Amino acid sequence: MVGQEVHIRSVGTALPGSPVDNAALTKAFRLTPVFEQWIDAFVGTRTRYLALDLVTGEQRYSLADLGETAARRALETAGVAAGQVDLVVMGTSMPDALLPTTVNVIAERAGITGVPGYQLQSGCSGAMQALDLAHQFLLAGRHRTALVLGGDVCAKHIDLSLDYSGLPPEEMVNMVLFGDGAGAAVLTREPGPGSVLLHRAFVELSGLGQPPGQRLEWYGLGDRDSGTPAVREDFKAIADLVPELSVDILARLLKEQDWQPADLDFLLPPQLSVRMTEKIMARLDVPGVREVSCVAETGNTGNALPFFQLERALPEMAPGDRAVAVAVESSRWIKAGLVLEKA
Questions:
Q1: What distance in Å separates the CA atoms of residue 328 and residue 7, rounded to the nearest whole number?
Q2: pLDDT for 57-78, tens place per residue?
Q3: What is the DSSP letter of 272?
Q4: How would you class 194 by CB atoms within 10 Å of its CB: exposed for 0-12, middle for 13-18, buried for 19 or more?
């Protein structure tokens, strides 16, 4: 029946290898202890997980590797067989290759076939976009069981031969903010044990006339020697705009759901860094709400992050508990979010 509810039945995640602390990162980049102190003070992230071996420079995991692990974990937890999935959607900013799409590689490895697969190219709102698309398909009655994926692997943008002491701040900051990971969720039109109702997913392009806060290049044979930095970030603009946009997102989601801030039990804020999350939570100012954050341990895993937050939140939610997730993508200032309730 069209218009049925959509439920998140389970979440699975995957991280590559062992955690990399700030001391190990400082050593790999051949920098002084001052750099480690700067990470602690300015960023606050304690560890992250990298698909790249910082000693050998070898990429040990692909996004497909991590996505397959996350998908299998989500399916197993939900008690859903691969043959029951009739829709696969993925959000990523760093696929393994332009073709074949990573979503289809993961689906094939997980034993899923004969279904539509969609891959959305986006930054920190990509996971929300994937969840939104699956949510709409399920509500329309076109599909019954969706596997939704999100993740990023930044190994291709780490060059251990570089002189990191000479990098400008807009490039260097990316080396400490981000980590690698993948997440997956099973969405269905029927509830299951421990499932959470997904009331709505929200995605909106904003920032008309505002320069991009982040650029991520993808080089080909024709421009790989252009000298253009692979990753650039206007951290000042992000620090100024993301808290403001987060306030707008939360206010809009609460209004559309006819909830008050006091009705919230859990809040899943944007996860650029520990210090940024602290700033955002202060601006959101929701007394008594339980913050669900993981960036201190995982680093900013991009499109995997909402799944890590959901993985922490869902088991803690009791019947009647309400949650809102907020995400902001700085590339073109995209606002996104989720509204959840435990039935």
A1: 23
A2: 999 999 999 999 999 999 999 9
A3: S
A4: middle
Q: How far apart are CA 67 and CA 143, in angstroms?
A: 22
Beta strand 47-48 with 145-152: parallel, antiparallel or unpaired? unpaired
pLDDT of residue 1: 41
Provide, rounded to the nearest whole percent, the portion of the chain with pLDDT above 70: 99
Q: In sequence order, what are the residues at sequence separation of 6 or more whose Cβ sits closer than 8 angstroms to the Cβ of residue 26? A: 32, 33, 35, 36, 39
Q: Under a CB-based contact definition with an 8 Å cutoff, are residues 198 and 323 in contact?
A: no
Q: What is the DSSP letter of 52?
A: B
Q: How far apart are CA 216 and CA 93, in angstroms?
A: 8
Q: How far apart are the first and last CA of the chain?
A: 20
Which burial class, exposed, middle or buried, applies to 236 when counting CB atoms under 10 A from its CB (0-12, 13-18, 19+)?
exposed
Closest CA to 234 of 207, 258, 268: 207
Ranking 156-160, 269-273, 299-303, 332-336 by mean pLDDT, the lowest is 156-160
Query: How far is residue 110 from each of residues 83, 85, 298, measured CA to CA in Å?
Result: 10, 10, 25
Token pair 């040990």 is at which residue? 60
The phi and psi torsions of 84 (rounded to 5 degrees) equal -90, -15
> How far is residue 278's CA from residue 264's CA, in Å, rounded to a whole number?
18
Overall average pLDDT of the 100-110 stretch: 98
Cis, peptide link before residue 100, omega less than 30° from 0: yes
The amino acid sitting at 37 is Q
Backbone conformation region of residue 218, classed left if phi is above 0, alpha if psi is from -120 to 50, else beta: beta
Name beta bridge partners: 185.
Answer: 11, 148
Q: Are 267 and 310 in contact (CB under 8 A)?
A: no
